[in-house]
Specification:
Length: 204
């Protein structure tokens, strides 16, 4: 399980150098990472994990810290992946080697096989349908999916899960504060409401 010590180290990681609003590149706060991954612990420990839309690697790193056998972080943005690799080196300096790798790819075109997906995908606010693309890709490659989505996205999740043959549950509702990171943001801080979902392929 992730502890307060892990959270403190995650707080020191570098964020997106030039966040792209089209890609909805918002950092996942370390306290949310800890709560989210501790919920997913039993589906991560000892498993092969994929982090879709990994950005600067905080979830990728977090899964390694709680005992994933191997984690692959996938992202389109090469600058974000460079930061992710730098963040891995920083965390390895504290906790030792992490069994992670990164791949540059467009998520809808990325084909894989893994035990579990963990992700904080785009919510489809800037590009409609991007949330569905991520979720469909996740369910296509893994038997279990843990994801953050907009608060109480139950109808959306239910429809996609049913089409692909997955069961689902909303595990928790979380809220956190994001700092101003985009030029068009008018407020210095904004409260975000999200839900944690777990999906599982039927018959597992």
């Amino acid at each position: 399980m992730l502890t307060r010590q892990h959270e403190i180290v995650l707080q020191a990681l570098r964020d997106f150098p030039n966040p792209d609003p089209h890609l909805e590149q918002y950092p996942t706060p370390p306290d949310v990472v800890v709560r989210f991954l501790n919920m997913a612990y039993r589906d991560v420990e000892g498993r092969v994990v994929v982090d879709l839309g990994c950005g600067t690697g905080v979830l990728t790193i977090g899964t390694a810290l709680i005992g994933a056998r191997f984690t692959v972080g996938v992202d389109l943005d090469m600058d974000a992946l460079r930061v992710a690799k730098s963040n891995v080196s920083f965390v390895e300096g504290v906790f030792g080697p992490l069994n992670v790798s990164f791949v540059r790819a467009r998520v809808p075109h990325f084909h894989f096989r893994a035990d579990t997906v963990v992700m904080n995908p785009p919510f489809g606010m800037q590009r409609k349908g991007s949330d569905a693309e991520f979720l469909i890709t996740a369910m296509g490659g893994a038997g279990v999916v843990w994801t953050l989505l907009g608060r109480r996205s139950d109808p959306f999740v239910s429809r996609l899960a049913r089409e692909v043959g997955f069961t689902w549950e909303r595990v928790a509702d979380l809220s956190f504060t994001l700092k101003r990171s985009m030029r068009f943001h008018r407020r210095e801080r904004r409260r975000i409401e999200v839900s944690v979902y777990r999906l599982e392929r039927m018959g597992i």
